[in-house]
Amino acid sequence: MASKLHPVQERIAKAHGSQCGFCTPGIVMSMYALLRNNPQPSMHDVQEAFQGNLCRCTGYRPILEGYRSFTKDGGCCGGKAQSNGCCMTNEHTQEHDSSTLPAQKLYDQSEFMPLDPTQEIIFPPELMSLSKQPQRELRFAGERVLWIQPCSLEELLELKATYPNAKLVVGNTEVGIEMKFKNLFYPVILAPAYIPELNIIQNTQDGIQVGASVTLTVLGDVLRAAVKKLPAHQTEVFKAVLEQLRWFAGQQIRNVAAVGGNIMTASPISDLNPVFMAASCKLTVMSKGEKHVIEMDGKFFPGYRKTILKPEEILLSIEIPYTRKGQYFSAFKQSPRKEDDIAIVTCGMNVFFKEQSNIVQSIRISYGGMAPVTVLATATCNRLLNRQWNEELLEEACTSLAEEMSLSPSAPGGMVTYRRTLTISLFYKFFLNVQHKLSLDLLKEGVTVEDVRPEYATATELFQLDSPSSVQLYQAVPPGYSDDVVGQPIMHLSALKQATGEAIYCDDIPCYENELHLALVTSTKAHALIKSIDTSDAMAVPGVVAFISAKDIPGSNMTGPVVYDETVFADDKVTCVGHIVGAIVADTQAHAQRAAKAVKISYEELQPVIVTIQDAIANKSFFQPVRSIERGDVAQGFKDSDHILHGEMHIGGQEQFYLETNCTLAVPRGEDGEMELFVSTQSASKTQALVAKALGVSANRVVCRVKRMGGGFGGKESRSTILSTVVAVAAHTVKRPVRCMLDRDEDMLVTGGRHPFFGHYKVGYMNNGRVMALEVTLYSNAGNSLDLSLSILERALFHMDNSYNIPNIRATGYVCKTNLPSNSAFRGFGGPQGMMIAESWMSDVALSCGLPAEEVRRMNMYKEGDFTPFSQRLDNFTIDRCWEECMQLSDFNKRKDAVEQYNRQHRWTKRGLSIIPTKFGISFTAVFLNQAGALVLVYSDGSVLLTHGGTEMGQGLHTKMVQVASKTLGIPCSKIHITETSTNTVPNTSPTAASASSDLNGMAIYNACQTLLQRLQPYKDKNPKGCWEDWVKAAYFDRVHLSANGFYKTPDLGYDFETNSGRPFNYFSYGVAVSEVEIDCLTGSHKNLHTSIVMDVGKSLNPALDIGQVEGGFMQGLGLFTLEELRYSPDGYLYTRGPGMYKIPAFGDIPIELKVSLLRDAPNEKAIFSSKAVGEPPLFLAASVFYAIKDAITAARAESNLTGPFRLDSPATPERIRNACEDKFTKLVCSNFHC
Q: Where does substrate bind (predicted)?
């Protein structure tokens, strides 16, 4: 590893901000770039710098907290317990905890190396000197593309005349995407980034003229300077552009993307074009021998992705105008996620009033996202001329916009009702904004007009991202036990390597000399027969070696993790879009991917195409068996109930979005059918078995090796094998090493994700909220094969009660067979879906009774010694303790009073509060998987090599296992090393899944270490004053075996669905979370204001890792329940492929205040060193955010006199939130749209 770390690398590692580590170098470089430009940034600067970065593991908190130490105010949090290791943490802890033990720090900030900007490496002088040399034309000719960088405007115009269809590229933020994802091809690309005339910035009489190649970052700097310098009334448009730039992509994109590119791309959802159009910006256009100025009006975009410029013309510059007194301008953008997201609807609004009046002289409103082009609401604007800016004008405008901004029900992008509502809601925000500013401005001139009502004021406020604060509490190792590494917050053992970029992932393995690359050929139809495959064009691509298909498989084409109901390659029939039909093997990845696109497959389409759960129900398309659990007398329970309600809920799927996509390198060893595989997988043994099956050899000829994964989350438990088998077959066929790392869009297309669920329930309850009877039916969307879906449904049924004791209960579960890529394991494994349905009916009961939801939940909660519906007794039940501590930690009652007061005082923003418990069963429900092996090797120098059956995917399993071995053997962690997980050291390993890996592998390691200790005991007895090395050396010279196998199987497990008897789980993990949110009733956006979590993890093996798992799991759940949405066409085509369309939580989505406490004094005798599983259980606690949103919506609906239960499906996206907040604007759209 690097001999010296930079402080930026050190702090993210030591602050526990690196788990899987795949995103860490990118985050390090974003922070490094910020500090090079601004050595003393504010916390806001740090948050802005990370707008283009994503992390799927950590939950972001430790990253921000570690880097807070670089900020101006990073030294002390001002008494708000914001910084880890805050000087006031101890005092804060004792306020909420009966324990007298002080809270400990997860790391010591005083140990950080100081940042010394004078010690940074200088910018290379050779590159500096290049900027002083005269510009000259550059040309690069590839196999198919000519790239030219002209050095003068004349040269550019000459080239554009010669190549009129050439694309102009500055940042390549759009053309690169078009070429990759839309299969567009541009043989000539012109790069005018350094032409002086295209980089001008000058003040004119009417505004600021900006060259078309000026980057968005520079544009922002220029406009910010103008806003500071000029009178406020002149800079209304500038401020609107700046507001749009705040949320335009990320800093990295803004640094290279050009303003001209944004205009000429002509995107119908452009963030800036509606602003430019509403402002009547002037564009200077040039061609060879001609130059003219045009106004950006309703005619500028004649069609989708088209402008009125001729092919030989270029955009030279744009003039952004000043505004005048009496002129007001606003811009709005609504997107699923606030940070770095594409717009759903975006708009610019511009009004000018007659002197000293509120009478409209001119008005211009422009929308993006409402047509194939950016449009002006001309008819509405005409109707508002010469009208007073009052409620009558508002009513007229809203009615007119509802008519003018219409969309077809089948409009691309969907969300038709929401988009139409947004056009009115955003105008209403503009109306209030203008009304407020106008009243203040006219008052100065002695004219009085009505101001905005105080309760409406928040609708005019711009979204502000507050600086997050956090507290972490855990039970420290008692004084005098500091040598005990178990229980210490030890840093992830690979964190420093991950921070420097030296950690090796699968695709980092150096290429073999004769290695080839593979690209998949996948189906474009969801249900069809394959008529023919034409590979002639593909084989003509340079570098192509072979096309691999079913006929090349030497063994069996049938595969699958449980039952063999899948194929390695589709043979005669495809059953989903993304079904692997074949693969191209070529000398480079680019050649392989190009050839794969050239393969032509003809199909005969089949019916039906089943995509949704509703489709499956209608076609009775189910896998067998149907599962059910029943307890008590359900019919009698309903008879005894005061009330009965019915309800439904749909929970959307979720993409695992591990940062490292699936990757396999297969190396044929050339004899006896041997094959070595380097794979990013959670299931080394299953990969070994299925590859051996496809190759027609026994498992002992295949070795699977896993160093580490860049995230897994269940997505690499079974679905990674579909790529590994293909790559192995290809390597066997060509007899050369073959590598494939999927691109993100390919990975999302072929691997499936979390199962969508649909639940229907009938609940019988008493007047006081006590639930007497429940009947629930669950349906899961499995996709085109069974995979692990039956086990996932079973776990959903086991968690259908969440934490509530229902005396009479009946649940039935169906696994739906559909024409989607097979869905699979994802953190929680069906548990979150089952519990989410439970919280839905619990919420409905509370709303129906008119009682506080927290009281109804508490009343129905299990108690110590109660039995679950599957007849398992709850021992050491700690939810009641978690609940009380969480109520205290969050100051729930005080917070609730504040929420109610806020809601009384605000009409268009509402706050909500919710407390949610979780009870999660720990064990594989397939009993045979609850086993683990370990191999411990002690070398004669005293060093220890540790191998076990678990894989490292960021969760810190290897770190914990080293801690277990260290404690057991009584030696420092530094003497113990884990190289990798491999099938030739520990056989028949279970997948690293079900949160059980620390329990299983930890016990196996413990058993192996105990064997070694027994062998070393005679030498300890002979030399009691000796050290570890002395005893090992003595044993070695005495010919003692210094390696040991360990094995463990969880005792007393097994459940029978037929008799509803047995014990499916070894124990349960418990937790409770309180969350507070604020929703914007007009747009559906929400802010996560506060979350407190209390989690029972037993006696933590490593509090830093466990808190990281709690926070990371919570943020993944936040994505599942509020943000992440997979969208399919009716033909089964996945629209949301890649981060452009599919949004996981970003840095700005974490709760502004986040408190995490690990429950004290709760040892668990059923796992290694009294610990508990922690990977999956915390994820469901994010449901507290969902139900806080539902609470806020309830308050909004009350303003329209709507009370009682209402359906809110998951995720609670802005669209669903806005549509649920029914008001006069939604009614206007519905009456016009016939909802």
A: 717, 795, 829, 925
The reply to whether 20 sits in an annotated binding site is: yes
Residues whose CB falls within 8 Å of the CB of residue 950, separated by 6 or more in sequence, listed in order: 932, 957, 958, 961, 981, 989, 992, 997, 998, 1000, 1001
The Cα 31–Cα 35 span in angstroms is: 6
Round to whole Å and give the CA distance between 270 and 184.
20
Number of Cα atoms under 13 Å in the Cβ half of residue 546 = 17
Residue 604 known to bind ligand: no
Pairing of strands 573-574, 469-473: unpaired
Quick one: the chain helix, strand, coil %, rounded to 5?
35, 20, 40
Q: Is 171 annotated as a binding residue?
A: yes
- Please, are residues 1069 and 1174 in contact by the beta-carbon 8 Å criterion? yes
Contact call for residues 941 and 1028 (beta carbons, < 8 A): no
Instruction: Report the alpha-carbon distance of residue 655 to residue 1119 in Å, rounded.
Output: 10
Task: Indicate the pairing of strand 675-679 with strand 702-706.
Answer: parallel
In angstroms, the CA 759 to CA 761 distance is: 6
What pLDDT, on the 0 to 100 scale, is given for residue 82? 45
3-state secondary structure of 1173: coil
713 is in an annotated binding site: yes
- As given in the structure block, the two tokens for residue 612 are 């949704």
Identify whether 150 is preceded by a cis peptide bond (ω within 30 of 0): no
**CA-CA distance, 649 to 867, in Å (whole number)?**
27
What span, in angstroms and rounded, lies between the C-alpha atoms of 166 and 189? 5
Phi, psi of 753 (to 5 degrees): -155, -145
687 has binding-site annotation: no
Residue-level pLDDT at 687: 98
- 717 labeled part of a ligand binding site: yes
Four-residue CA torsion sign, 694, 695, 697, 702? negative
Q: Mind listing the pLDDT tens digit for each residue in 593-618? A: 999 999 999 999 999 999 999 999 99
Question: Cα(235)–Cα(213) distance, rounded to whole angstroms?
Answer: 22
Active site (catalytic) residues: 1176
Enter the pTM of the model.
Answer: 0.97
CA distance 1224 to 397: 13
Residue type for position 332: F
The predicted structure's pLDDT at residue 1: 64
Alpha-carbon gap, residue 980 to 986, rounded angstroms: 11
- The gap between the terminal CA atoms of the chain, to the nearest Å, is 63
**What are the DSSP calls for 519-554, one per residue?**
EEEE-S-SSEEEEEEE-HHHHTSTTEEEEE-GGG-S
Regions of the chain where pLDDT drops below 50: 76-102
Q: Report the chain's C-alpha Rg in angstroms.
A: 31
pLDDT recorded at residue 399? 96
Task: Determine if residue 345 is labeled as part of a ligand binding site.
Answer: no
Distance of alpha carbon 899 from alpha carbon 1077, whole angstroms: 9
Helix (H) or strand (E) holding 779, with range, is strand 771-783
Q: How far apart are CA 389 and CA 431, in angstroms?
A: 8
CA–CA distance, 850 with 836 (Å, rounded to integer)? 21
Pairing of strands 1153-1158, 469-473: parallel
Q: Is 181 annotated as a binding residue?
A: no
Q: What is the DSSP letter of 232?
A: G
Q: Which of 137, 114, 134, 232 is nearest to 191 (CA)?
A: 137
Amino acid at 1081: C
Rounded-to-integer distance, Cα 511 and Cα 665, Å: 9
CA distances from 819 to 298, 623, 635, 784 (A): 43, 13, 37, 5
How would you write 1209-1224 as a 3-class SS string?
Answer: CECCCHHHHHHHCCCH
Give me 691's structure tokens. Answer: 């590859």
| Rounded CA separation 363/357 (Å) | 15
* Cα–Cα distance, 68 to 30 (Å, whole number): 14
Residue 1108: which H helix or E strand, with range? helix 1103-1122
**pLDDT in the model for residue 1093:** 98
Q: Is 173 annotated as a binding residue?
A: yes
